[in-house]
Amino acid sequence: MLRSCAPRLRTLGALRGPWGGAWPPASEPGPAPRSFSSEKDILVDFALPNPSWSQDIRLLFDQFMKKCEDGSWKRLPSYKRGSTQRTQEFKTRFLDPKLMKDELPQAQLFTRSIEDGLGFEYVMFYNNAEERVVCLFQGGPYLQGAPGFIHGGAIATMIDATVGMTALIAGGIVMTANLNINYKRPIPLCSVVVINSQLDKVEGRKYFVSCKVQSVDEKTLHSEATSLFIKLDPDKSLI
User: Fold this and answer.
1) Strand ranges across the sheet with 132-139
2) Which residue(s) pair with 163 in the sheet?
3) Mean pLDDT over residues 173-199, rounded?
4) Which of 115, 223, 238, 239 has its CA 20 to 30 A from that of 54?
């Protein structure tokens, strides 16, 4: 049974790639205490339970944390901002020096920019041996499209984030070249879905990834997608 969003939410004041979070992903035996310091939000791991998480996502989280105990799966931490060093490295490697400016202090990862429970609540786990990433996603009330359902663009955002992480783990810094989504059934607002992503093949700098978005009980297929990511060439500017 899917639960609704928590009525009261705590207020909290990653471009894809290593600059948007910890890399390589940290191995951890279990959830660490979550800090709510606004002055050090770069250190806050948002891929841990908070009061807005429903019972569905908490149960799935516990199941995957259990899988992490033998090392086959690992939880991916997620932060609002990347470190200054990693951001500067990305600018230096891929942007035209003439266009480089100081990082805006307001800049933060899109999927972590909405208060807890109102937008994107998610956690990702990956399995290196199987070249898979699984994302547990709960869409909050600020993601509404058609009344009572999650906006298709919000779904696309989480699909892109999940398949992109799959390509990132396999190939390093990548960018989306193509993303094809087939929407099968709408996702009720505030419900939980599981996004299963799989690396299909690699051709040079091209990484092909596919995924399915399913209900918690796996009986409903909400969406499926295929994608192409290109590993960035450090000798070429993005501008």
Assistant:
1) 74-76, 120-127, 132-139, 192-203, 206-215, 221-231, 174-183
2) none
3) 97
4) 223
Query: Which has the higher per-residue pLDDT, 56 or 33?
Result: 56
The rounded distance, in Å, linking the Cα atoms of 194 and 155 is 11
Tell if the pTM clears 0.85, that is, is over it. Answer: no
Instruction: Please classify residue 71 by burial: count the beta carbons closer than 10 Å to its beta carbon, then call 0-12 exposed, 13-18 middle and 19+ buried.
Output: exposed
Contact 34, 50 (CB under 8 A): yes
The phi and psi torsions of 220 (rounded to 5 degrees) equal: -120, 125
DSSP string over 91-123: HHHHS-GGG--PPPTT---GGGSS-TTTSEEEE
Residue 146 CA to residue 150 CA, distance in Å, equals 7
200 is catalytic: no
Catalytic residue among 45, 56, 160, 233: 160
Let me know if 15 is exposed, middle or buried by CB neighbors in 10 A (0-12, 13-18, 19+): middle
Residues 102-132 pLDDT 10s: 555 567 889 999 999 999 999 999 999 999 9
**Pairing status of strand 174-183 against strand 74-76:** unpaired
Q: How do the residues of the chain divide into helix, strand and coil, expressed in percent and rounded to 5?
A: 25, 30, 45
Whether the bond between 49 and the residue before it is cis, its omega within 30 degrees of 0, is no
- Kindly report which listed range (12-21, 72-81, 111-120, 162-171) carries the lowest average pLDDT score: 12-21
Whose tokens are 């898979």? That residue is 132
